[in-house]
Automatic annotation (TrEMBL):
Signal peptide: 1-19
Sorted UniProt keywords: Signal
Domain of life: Bacteria
Protein name as annotated: Gliding motility protein GldH
Species whose genome carries this gene: Siansivirga zeaxanthinifaciens CC-SAMT-1
NCBIfam families per the UniProt record, alphabetical: GldH_lipo (TIGR03511)
């Protein structure tokens, strides 16, 4: 009985801790299949927050021990409401020199919060679309990794910048 009460109390505090993330403006995850195909694009659509403040943008990833690379290449495209498009090829470090996966988490699932853009002002009203695609290559090979294993979820996050 006491053990169940402690567990319930832990769950309540965990929920309150996560729910009190006051910097988050947009934070959505989407699951990917067991293997993330190189042509599979994960898409997020968000309404522009107010146009007077700057925001930090992040790509969030959850990966398992099945992820076998030290880095990750992504193509991230932002499509503005009036059609302008910005496309970036980004590289992120996913493991330390010993091969231990980076990120947070107590299980074999690690969560990574990866910088995308800093101090972005959403000047255009309307809906922004963010497309994320894996662009992994194996060393010395021209063709990309067709089915990337170990990535379970891809997310996109917009945060208010702390004005201290």
């Amino acid at each position: 009985m006491l053990r169940n009460s402690v567990w319930l109390l832990f769950l309540i505090f965990s929920f309150l801790f996560v729910a009190c993330d006051s910097n988050s403006v947009y934070d959505v995850y989407k699951s990917v299949p067991q293997k993330w195909h190189k042509n599979s694009i994960v898409t997020f659509q968000l309404k522009a927050p107010d146009s007077t403040n700057a925001y930090n943008l992040f790509v969030n990833l959850r990966n398992t021990n099945d992820y076998k690379y030290n880095n990750l290449f992504l193509i991230v495209e932002m499509v503005f409401p009036h059609g302008k498009t910005i496309k970036d090829t980004l590289e992120y470090k996913m493991a330390d020199p010993t091969g231990k996966l980076l990120g947070t988490g107590f299980t074999d699932v690690k969560e990574n919060k990866l910088w995308y853009k800093e101090a972005v002002v959403f000047k255009e009203a309307g809906t922004y679309t963010v497309n994320i695609q894996q662009a992994m290559r194996e060393h010395g090979k021209v063709n990309g990794v067709v089915d990337l294993e170990g990535i379970t979820d891809v997310g996109f996050r917009v945060e208010k910048i702390n004005q201290e």
